[in-house]
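U., I forgot to send this yesterday:
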Amino acid sequence: MEDSGNARQLIIKILKEKAVLKQEIFSKTKDVFRLLKECLAEINKDLVTQVNTDGTKLYFNYQEKGDFEAIIAFAGDTLIFHMHTNVFNFDRSHGIWKTTYVKEDERRAYCGVINIYNFLTDSFRYNREQDLGYLIARIFVNHELHYFVEGKRQLGFLYNDFANAVINKEALMKIIESAILYSLDFDLLTPSYDQVKQVSMMEIFANSEILQLKTGKRMGFRFQADNDDLY
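Result:
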């Protein structure tokens, strides 16, 4: 009975400490995501106003899909922002454990995460369900509202001061703008002949108007002088 009592006390202790902490992080990340959606709506409105002048009619769109997903489309690119409903810690090999900030309090390593995916706008316009999207960045937020971003190029090195950076509207605006610039920096290049030389009868006849061939940033697009993987 004594061992059972000790186990029960341990369960209660963990629930009071870890579970409550995770609940707090979830709540604060949700608040951050709500602010992020406000930033996306503001940016979309500004792009429409500033770009679509003098007869220019580029496609722009912003929409929210529930509490945890928001989509912004700008010309040929679409970004999907998705907040994960779980809270995460990091593998001990991750660089976060080397920071004095986390060494002083390991609870700071628990983070909510917001993923940013890049798709082609035409994938949604023509319902090309086989098309691929790619994770271009993810935002981590802890219970103190400190944050950092994992990604490539400017998304990977501009936002990595976890010890000092506190998430706010200004920071979110900059992250969104960096994600948009990153997406716009693709050049559309034709894939190699061997990559597309075969097509099935099903793919040809699945839609009489649209050729249902898989398209994605790594197939039809690539970065000039930036061919490394995301991680």
